[in-house]
């Protein structure tokens, strides 16, 4: 399948820096190195709209997990900001600033009220989407934060970093629950099982549970 924009496929694809599917996998949003997002219809393989918001490349995109919020998404950029987009209004509706360097990863809570951002500045920030304010900043990683994941059934957050560790945070007391021993290489990806009982972690050279 090739998503086409009236013959401009090659130009669009060459600039893609991040992608994310909506809940029903009927649309895919691509972010570009020019700071814009493009919304594509999967069935027709056509471009729906292109919107501009960031000043430089988009590094990560997160769709909201609730069907009532499927028109909303977040993007993190090399401009160190996170933006909230409303695809119905075809514009950004909020901007979240608190990092000093590029935003590497985003994760939204299952209820769609909070999100977490991890960045090149080694910080993990927790945000309230409604107020647009930062709730807390976790600063115990010693290198860029590369991935994060909320537990689907507990108010906890797992974060992975280029410092080769995974840290597990309590979001009620805003404290560190535990941290893994350093791996041989940086952490690349995290994922909970559907019941939230096991956490899978992937480094550059190994995967652990």
Mean pLDDT: 91
Query: What is the 3D shape?
Result: globular
Q: Which series of helices and strands comes N to C?
A: HEEEEEEEEEEEEEEEEEEE
- Please, how many helices? 1
Structural class: mainly beta
Radius of gyration: 17 Å
**pLDDT < 50 runs, ≥5 residues:** 6-14
Give the name of the CATH architecture of one domain.
7 Propeller
Count of extended strands: 19
Q: What is the end-to-end distance? A: 34 Å
**CATH topology-level name of one domain:** Methylamine Dehydrogenase, Chain H
Helical content band: under 10%
Strands in their spatial order, largest beta sheet: 1-2-3-4
Q: Can you identify the CATH superfamily of one domain?
A: YVTN repeat-like/Quinoprotein amine dehydrogenase
Largest sheet entry? 4 strands, antiparallel
CATH class assignment of one domain: Mainly Beta
What percent strand?
A: over 45%
In short:
The protein is mainly beta and about 210 residues long.
Structural write-up:
The model is unreliable at 6-14 (pLDDT under 50). The chain is built from 1 helix and 19 strands. It has 209 residues and is an all-beta fold. It has a domain at 98-208: Methylamine Dehydrogenase, Chain H (7 Propeller), CATH 2.130.10.10. Helices cover 2% and strands 52% of the residues.
Layout: helices, strands, pairs:
Elements: H1 9-13, E1 16-21, E2 27-32, E3 36-41, E4 46-52, E5 58-63, E6 72-77, E7 81-86, E8 91-97, E9 103-108, E10 114-119, E11 124-128, E12 133-138, E13 145-150, E14 156-161, E15 166-170, E16 175-179, E17 187-192, E18 199-203, E19 207-208
Antiparallel strand pairs: 1-2, 2-3, 3-4, 5-6, 6-7, 7-8, 9-10, 10-11, 11-12, 13-14, 14-15, 15-16, 17-18, 18-19
């Amino acid at each position: 399948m090739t998503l086409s924009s009236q013959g401009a496929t090659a130009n669009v694809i060459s600039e893609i820096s991040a992608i994310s599917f909506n809940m029903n996998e009927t649309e895919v949003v691509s972010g570009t190195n020019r700071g814009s997002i493009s919304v594509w219809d999967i069935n027709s393989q056509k471009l729906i709209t292109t919107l501009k918001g960031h000043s430089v490349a988009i590094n990560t995109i997160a769709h909201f997990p609730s069907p009532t919020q499927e028109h909303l998404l977040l993007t993190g950029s090399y401009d160190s900001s996170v933006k909230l987009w409303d695809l119905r209004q075809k514009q950004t509706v909020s901007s979240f600033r608190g990092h000093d360097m590029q935003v590497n990863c985003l994760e939204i809570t299952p209820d769609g009220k909070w999100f977490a951002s991890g960045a090149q500045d080694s910080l993990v920030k927790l945000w309230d989407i409604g107020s647009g304010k930062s709730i807390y900043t976790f600063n115990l990683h010693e290198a860029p934060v590369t991935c994060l994941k909320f537990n689907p059934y507990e108010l906890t957050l797992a974060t992975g970093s280029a410092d080769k560790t995974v840290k597990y945070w309590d979001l009620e007391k805003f404290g560190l629950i535990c941290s893994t021993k350093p791996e041989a290489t940086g952490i690349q990806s995290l994922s909970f099982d559907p019941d939230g009982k096991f956490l899978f972690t992937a480094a550059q050279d190994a995967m652990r549970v």
